[in-house]
Write a structure and sequence with these properties.
By secondary structure, the protein is α/β, with parallel strands linked by helices. About 35% of the residues lie in helices and about 25% in strands. About 0% of the residues have low confidence.
Length: about 500
């Protein structure tokens, strides 16, 4: 008998199915990967199980008994817990206070904090979840915050853990450590549902994989009996085609750069986030900026866009100095910006698709009628964008928070590429996206480059940089170390050394 059995689950939003007749079984003591693209229905299904959403059809059995949870508290009481992709912690409280928040004290009106801290340390040691119970959550790293979320569930004697995209915020070293924790949890008899769109991780850690696509269950397979190619085919319904960048005309000194950055400095709280950054971006090329995250990439992108004011240096866009220009003025000159953070930089979550699309085009004359925004025209062009970019949404009037991360990024692309910009600044544009959405975004950048647009691609994914870029620059500690032509003779070891701060002279 399975620990959990979800049978024929249905869930609708705005009349459209998010889950359609999905059945899922999880055995005791197994790691079960729930694999699918963004928008496939994975999180919706688990939110139903955890009592956040009500189901519209189907039945849930836990240890053979039918259950229906109307709140997360009821699910936790029955031994089911969930760690969401965006953590639910109070930064001004300690680790211990966060873990026990919401637990009713029995007997004494004040909690025995020493006893609680000792219990937390025991759990931390048992499962390899090292964290200081007395530390403020605001002082923790993202990896440590995730450990607190897991301990919070274990403290409540949860038997089945649901982990929503748990590796999205972790470094490669933290992922390796996290997998060790999952194995230890499994050894202690816990069951784990791992929500993910990352096939290599599903292959590396799970016992079985259930694949969802477009709100339906496609297959459940034993991990040892499948491979990455089969899972990719099940996940997106087709084989991925390799992206071909194609040749470009080599830039020469006679070409006028679309974007020209010279001696750019940026200070923040007295620290040099950018130091003497110089480069030129030419028509019809992708200039990739590689580097370990946190070495000035975001600051560079935001100085170019105008969200930050450079301390020193010049920025020219299509021959016009723009370091003192507003964001709106820079966009009118042909600049587009694709961010990695849809929630903070790209979209307004509670506004609908039309309103978010308007954020770039609301001053365009095609969308103004009698001095007012022509909402009908805006609705029409948004519908066209949804179709052209294959955006899966309940409708143009739905808030964008209901869209998956991949579909949110597609909406940003559709909006930013409106009006055929001459320069695109793409800051980690595929971060956190599933393989189908990654392929779509990358192909859009290649197509624009082939049409003569200039693309500044800033990414921490070296494989992506190598695949898409015509030239590659490396950032370390706020400096662009060197810019190389991306050809067959490129020295990857040299790039790797520069990413860690070595110069060519140091290497030799």
């Amino acid at each position: 008998m399975p620990l959990l059995s979800m049978q024929h689950i249905d869930k609708f939003f705005f009349g459209k199915p998010a889950n359609n007749d999905i059945s899922l079984e999880v055995r005791a003591g197994e790691i079960h990967a729930l694999l699918g693209e963004n928008g496939a229905g994975k999180s919706t299904l688990m939110n139903i199980l955890f009592g956040i959403y009500s189901l519209d059809g189907g039945t849930i059995y836990l240890k053979g008994k039918e259950v229906k949870f109307f709140s997360p508290r009821e699910a936790i009481k029955s031994g089911i817990g969930m760690v969401h992709q965006h953590f639910m912690l109070v930064p001004t409280l300690t680790v211990s206070e966060n873990i026990t928040l919401g637990i009713k004290s029995t007997g004494h009106p004040l909690p025995d904090r020493k006893k609680i801290n000792d219990n937390i340390r025991q759990l931390s040691h048992k499962y390899g979840l090292d964290v200081d119970p007395c530390a403020l959550v605001s002082k923790l790293s993202v990896g440590e915050e995730q450990r607190v979320e897991i301990i919070k569930l274990l403290y409540r004697d949860v038997e089945l853990l649901i982990l929503d995209e748990p590796t999205a915020v972790l470094t490669p070293q933290e992922i390796e450590r996290f997998f060790s924790v999952l194995k230890r949890l499994k050894e202690e008899g816990h069951s784990i549902i791992l929500i993910t769109h990352r096939i290599p991780e599903a292959m590396a850690i799970s016992d079985r994989v259930t694949v969802l696509r477009n709100g339906t269950r496609i297959a459940t397979v034993n991990t040892t009996e499948t491979n990455k190619e089969e899972l990719s085919r099940l996940m997106i319904g087709r084989n991925l085609k390799p992206i071909v960048r194609g040749a470009r005309a080599k830039a020469t000194e006679k070409d006028n750069p679309r974007l020209d950055v010279k001696e750019l400095d940026y200070l923040e709280y007295g620290q040099g986030k950018l130091q003497k950054v110089s480069f030129s971006l030419y028509p019809g090329e992708i200039l990739g900026i590689a580097g370990v995250d946190g070495n000035g990439q975001k600051e560079l992108a935001e100085c170019i866009l105008g969200l930050r004011k450079a301390t020193q240096g010049t920025i020219s866009l299509n021959g016009v100095r723009i370091e003192k220009s507003s964001v709106a003025e820079r966009k009118k000159l042909g600049l587009a910006y694709v961010s990695d953070d849809q929630h903070h930089d790209g979209l307004v979550m509670d506004m609908n698709l039309v309103e978010n699309y308007l954020l770039r085009v609301h001053t365009y004359k095609d969308y103004i009628k009698n001095g007012l925004i022509d909402y009908q025209a805006c609705s029409r062009v948004t519908e066209e964008a949804i179709s052209a970019y294959n955006i899966k949404a309940p409708g143009i009037n739905a808030p964008v928070r209901l869209l998956s991360g991949g579909n949110q990024q597609k909406l940003i692309l559709a909006r930013e590429l409106t009006g055929n910009p001459s320069v695109i600044v793409a800051l980690k544009p595929t971060r956190g996206l599933d393989i189908g959405a990654v392929e779509f975004v990358q192909k859009q950048l290649i197509e624009r480059r082939n049409e003569g647009c200039s693309v500044l691609l800033i990414s921490v994914d070296l494989e992506e940089i190598l695949m898409l870029s015509d030239r590659i620059g490396v950032m370390n500690r706020g400096r662009v170390i060197e810019i190389l032509d991306n050809n067959e003779g490129i020295d990857l070891a040299h790039i790797g050394l520069m990413m860690t701060g070595h110069t060519f002279e140091e290497k030799s």
